[in-house]
Amino acid sequence: MYRNEYKLKKLNKIKNINIGWRIKMNYKKDLSKENQKLLEIADIKIENKEYTKEEIQKNISDIGNHIMSMSSKNGDILNAQLEFMPLINALQESIN
Fold first, then answer.
1. How far is 76 from 17, CA to CA, in rounded Å?
2. By the 8 A CB rule, do 59 and 31 touch?
3. Residues with Cβ < 8 Å from 60, sequence gap 6 or more?
4. Alpha-carbon distance 72 to 90, whole Å?
5. CA distance 19 to 66
6. Are 79 and 41 in contact (CB under 8 A)?
7. What is the pTM of this model?
8. CA-based max dimension of the chain
9. What is the rounded CA–CA span in Å between residue 25 and residue 53?
10. What is the pLDDT of residues 45-96, one digit of tens each?
């Protein structure tokens, strides 16, 4: 029983340390106005808060879904990829 309690305490200590590292980016403070506008175009609400790694990953996925919802016949997907790539890169850098 003692060994399991020790492992649990150690695990909780590690979790508490990792929680502090999960806060990655504040979109209002850390992104340019242009990138904030792109988030709004992709229907991602911008709040003045610290976004976690998981939230940033979800937003990257939402941006990808927005891009793929464009028409491929007239080149909208390619144009959207080029337009959103700086934003995706900025978000990706914050979680790496």
1. 44
2. no
3. 88, 91, 92
4. 25
5. 30
6. no
7. 0.74
8. 66
9. 8
10. 999 999 999 999 999 999 999 999 998 889 999 999 999 999 999 999 998 8
